Amino acid sequence: MRVDPFGRRGQAPRRRGFGGGGVRWWVLLLFAGYAAYYWVSNRTVDPYTGDKVLIDRSLTPAQEEALGLQAYRQILAREPVLDPEAPIARQVREIAARLIAKADEVEAALAAEHGLPPQHIARGFEWDVNVIRSDQVNAFCLPGGKMAVYTGLVPVAQNADAMAVVLGHEIAHALLRHGAQRLTQQKVGQIVQLGAALGGMDVNQQRMVMAAMGYGVLLPYAREHETQADHVGLMLAAAACYDPREAVPLWQRMARARGGSAPPEFASTHPDPGTRIERLRALMPKAMAFRERFCEEAGGAAR
C-alpha cells in the first residue's frame, strides 16, 4: 500500500494532462495551434505556379542569397573546380547565360497564366557558374544564383539541349525560392518536435510523429518542388532556343545511370523516373509553344 505523508492512503498517482502515459495533451494542443497559425500566416502565392506556398515572412531574398553564398563557398573550397577556360566549363557558362537571360520573360508569361504580377527576384542575383571535377551525376543552383555542374553529368547529358534542361531545372529551384520553402518547413518540423518533447512524448513516440510528418508532408513537398522545377526549367530551356524534347531521353539516361538504387516514390524526395517522364511529355506542347514564341523574339532560329 502506498503511504501518503498527508494521511491519504491508497490513492493512485495523479496523471498529468488529459490522458495517460505522462503525455501533456494541453501542451501538444498549444504547439499544434501555434504550428497551424505559423503555417497559415506565412503562406504566399507563387507567381510561377499560382499555388500558395509556405515561406517565412521574416526570411528575405537577401538573407536567402547570403546563405546560398556561404554554402557555395564551402563547396568550392573542398571540391576540385575545373579551369574556367576549359571547353566544358565555357560551354556550361554559355548555356547558363542563355537560360538566365530568359528568366524575366518566362516568369512574366507563367505569372500571367495565373493573373499574377511577376516578382523578378532573380534581378538581384549575382550569378556564378563553375564546373566541378567529380563522377557525381549532379548539378545545383543555390539561392542567389550560385551554380555548379559536376563533370559526371556531362556524359549523361550528351548534348547542349539536354544540359540546358538540367540547368533550367536547377535555376528554377532558385527562381521558385525552394530553398526558403525548405528552411520554413524545417522550422515547422522544429515546432512539432519541440511540442512533442515538451508534451511528454517519449523518444519512440517523437520518432513516430516526425516520421509521419516526413512521409505525410515533407517528402510530398520535396517531390512537388521537383515537379515545379521540371516545369519551369523546361520553359526556360525552350525559351532560350534549346530543344525541350531532349528532356525525355535525358531522364531515361539519368534513370539508367542511377540503376535500381532509388527508393520507392513515397519514400523519396524525387518523383519516380517514369512519373517524371510522363509529366514532361505532357508539358511538351507548351514547351514547344514557348520555344516558338520566345526563341523567335530573341532572333534565334528554331533548330
Rg value: 24 Å
Please, what is the average pLDDT? 85
Low-pLDDT stretches: 1-20, 298-303
Spatial sequence of strands, sheet with the most strands:
3-5-4
Count structural domains.
Answer: 1
User: Structural class, from helix and strand content?
Assistant: mainly alpha
Quaternary structure: single chain
Helix content: 55-70%
Global outline: globular
Alpha-carbon distance between the two ends? 90 Å
* Secondary structure: number of strands: 5
State which percent range the strand residues make up: 5-15%
Walkthrough of the structure:
The protein is mainly alpha-helical and 303 residues long. It has one domain. It has ten helices and five strands. The strands form two sheets. The protein has a three-stranded mixed β-sheet, sandwiched between helices. A two-stranded antiparallel ribbon has the order 1-2. Helix 6 packs across helix 8. The chain is globular, with a radius of gyration of 24 Å. The termini are far apart. 31% of the residues are buried.
Summary of the model, kept short:
Helix content is 58%, strand content 7%. It is mainly alpha-helical and 303 residues long.
Overview features:
303 residues, three-stranded mixed β-sheet, 10 helices, 7% strand, disordered N terminus
Topology at a glance:
Layout: H1 25-41, E1 43-45, E2 52-54, H2 61-78, H3 87-101, H4 103-113, E3 128-132, E4 139-142, E5 146-150, H5 154-157, H6 160-175, H7 178-198, H8 203-239, H9 247-258, H10 273-297
Parallel strand pairs: 3-5
Antiparallel strand pairs: 1-2, 4-5
Helix pairs in contact: 1-7, 3-6, 4-8, 6-8, 7-8, 8-10, 9-10
